[in-house]
Design a protein that fits this description.
Helices cover 55% and strands 6% of the residues. With 64 residues, it is mainly alpha-helical. It has one domain (2-61). A two-stranded parallel ribbon has the order 1-2. The radius of gyration is 15 Å and the shape is elongated. The N and C termini lie far apart (46 Å).
Length: 64
C-alpha cells in the first residue's frame, strides 16, 4: 500500500450542522492514511482552534 499511496497528498474535511459533527469520522481515517504513508495536510488555524478547545475543556473538568 505505501508503494502506491505513499507521499500522496491527502486532506480530511467534513461538514455537519454542529461544530464537531465529523470529528469521529476524520479521526478514524487518520490511522488509515498514516499506515499507507500518505502526506497529511494539517491546517495550523484548525490545529490551534482544537488545542484551545481541549485546553478549555480540561480547565472545565478541573473546575476552572
Amino acid at each position: 500500500m505505501p508503494r502506491v499511496f505513499g507521499r500522496k497528498p491527502v486532506a480530511i474535511a467534513g461538514a455537519s450542522p454542529g461544530g464537531l459533527g465529523t470529528v469521529l469520522s476524520q479521526n478514524a481515517w487518520l490511522p488509515v492514511f498514516r499506515t499507507i504513508g500518505a502526506s497529511l495536510y494539517t491546517d495550523a488555524a484548525v490545529k490551534e482552534s482544537v488545542a484551545k478547545f481541549i485546553a478549555g475543556f480540561v480547565a472545565h473538568l478541573r473546575g476552572g
